[in-house]
Each structure stands twice: as C-alpha cells, then as structure tokens.
Amino acid sequence: ENPLGPSPLAIAAVAKILNNLHRYPDGAAHDLSSKLADRLGVKPENIVIGNGSDEVIALLAQALLQPGDEVIIPDPSFLMYDITVRGAGATPVHVPLTKLHIDLDAVKENITSATRMIFICNPNNPTGTVICKSDMDRFFADLPENIVVVLDEAYLEFVRDPKAAKGSDYIDETRPVVGLRTFSKAYGLAGMRVGYGIMPAKLSNLLHRIRLPFNVNLPAQAAAAAALDDDGFLEKSVRMVHEGLEFLYHSLDKMGLTYFATQTNFFLVDVARDAQDIFEKLLRHGIIVRSMRSYGYNEYLRVNVGLPEENRRFIAALAKVLGRDL
C-alpha cells in the first residue's frame, strides 16, 4: 500500500525485538495504545488494538450483533463488512452508492427498528470518495442513539480535501461511534497486521472481554509504535502518493481517458471497454491493477499509485494496450 515500504524506524524496531521472540507480547499493547491515545487526544481505554482493523470489525460484530439485527452497508464498499455481518448471523442491508459516493440520505432511509449498526468507509474503498463534514454533521444530527456507527478511516492519511469529515469529530462517550484506523496503508505495515479502533470506553470494554489475549504479535507492536515516531517518513510517503496521482491524472488526460479523482492512494479509471480484458493484457506486461467487474463497474480499473518508475511503466503499458497516444 505504501510503495516506499515501512519507516526505517519501524524496520529497526523489528530487528531489535528479534532477540525477544521467546517472550509473549503485551496482551494489552500498552505502549502502542498509550502512544496512540496521546496522539489522538483520547484515553488508552478508548483504544482497541487489533490484528489489522479487520479484527476490530470482527470483534464489533461478535460483541454487538445477533440474528435478526440489520446492518447497513453502502455498496460497493470494503468487502469485510458483509462477510463479518453474515458471520455473526445478522442481515446486511446494501445501499447503492450515488455517482461513486456514499449516499447518507439513502442510508438513513434504510434505517428500521432492526438496524443495529452502520458501516461508513470514509474515504470509501473502492471508489476513493469522501463525505464532507457538513453532510456527516447532518447525518448524525437525528440518528437514533442505539445504532452503532463504524467510521472506517483506513486511508485517512491520504485525504487532501479540507472539507472532508473526520471521525474524531464524532467519537465521544455519549454515543456509540467507532473510528477504525490501520497501519497497513500509509504506514506501510500491511504484512504486520496492526489496526485499531477508537471508541467509547463502554464499547472497548465489551471488545476486550472477547478479544484473544495475544492478538497482536511482538514485532508488530514494536513496528507500529516506532512508525508513529517517524512523521517525516509518513509525510514523504503521502507526498509521493499525491505527486504520483498528479502524474497519472495528467497522463490519462493526454490519453483522453476518464478517471475519478481520489482522496486515497488508489483511483478508478474508465477504460471504455471490458476492464477484465484490459487487466489480463496489462498483466502480460507485468502490470498488476484490479478489474472492478466484481463490483459492478465492468469498464473500470482500480489503480494504486506506485513508485515514479512504476507509474511510468503503467502508463506506457496502458497506452500500448489501448492503442492510445501519449
């Protein structure tokens, strides 16, 4: 997810911890939780560290859902929401996007007496779009207080839109709102599996009761804590992604292709033909992108920003496959 990989400080922290692999990790991830709490302006008891944010999603479902409950999920969005909800025996209620954006009005129209939870991925995966603060404020203004809202901000660090909503504005002890974050994307620690949830203490207490005691391993905790100390590397990583996006946008403009501006490190491009076919042809050129056919966008590819030379290779290969001039 981060073409530069993890911070050198994270790599050094992992190397340093290798001599302690005979020891169990801290089951409470105290150092990491405390560091995150200080950074976020919350208390450690408001943090739940997970084996990726996937685990926090699973814990929420396990702790809060039961058969008969309904969970509203914008569609398309992160696939794990649906999988986890079904695994808990609850019923997912899919609400289609409007022009690639999550439609909060449509979400509210689907609320029933059985609604227990709502997932909102912001920025949304796989479309890269964000919800503005004014729309989110209006959404929360008269939302039933018994509904748990999960704001998944896996790509928060890449957001440039100053009007975008931030989960931290809605998380407090008075309402059941959960913010999800991860070290897999901008921090480049996808292989370590570290994510976390920010939530009211009464919710975190429920999750800690069912969480496995050593869910995040020792090197992962050390790497994540060290990565938080390297703001310079994070800024460099985000800047490289933004510069890569500008190059890719400009190149696609020259090719006459339609794309959809993103607030993440990936974006969608309309190739105006079967995207699966283009995906397979690009693969033969050593380029890996993703066809959006499984999401219902038959002519869209999802493209992740790479290193500058990788971005240039992608553009050259795409132009050749599509027969377009640069």
Low-confidence stretches: none
Compute the gyration radius: what is it? 20 Å
How many discrete structural domains? 2
Strands across the major sheet, in which order? 1-7-6-5-4-2-3
In DSSP terms, counting alpha (H) and pi (I) runs of 4 or more, how many helices? 11
In N-to-C order, the SSE pattern is: HHEHEHEHEHEEEHHHEEHEEH
Helix-strand makeup class:
alpha/beta
Can you give the helix content as a percent range?
25-40%
CA distance, first residue to last residue: 27 Å
Q: How would the global form be characterised?
A: globular
Q: Which CATH architecture of the largest domain?
A: 3-Layer(aba) Sandwich
Q: In percent, how much strand structure appears in the residues?
A: 15-25%
| Average of pLDDT | 97
- Total strand segments: 11
What's the level 1 CATH class of the largest domain?
A: Alpha Beta
Under CATH, the topology of the largest domain can be stated as: Aspartate Aminotransferase, domain 2
CATH fourth-tier homologous superfamily of the largest domain: Type I PLP-dependent aspartate aminotransferase-like (Major domain)
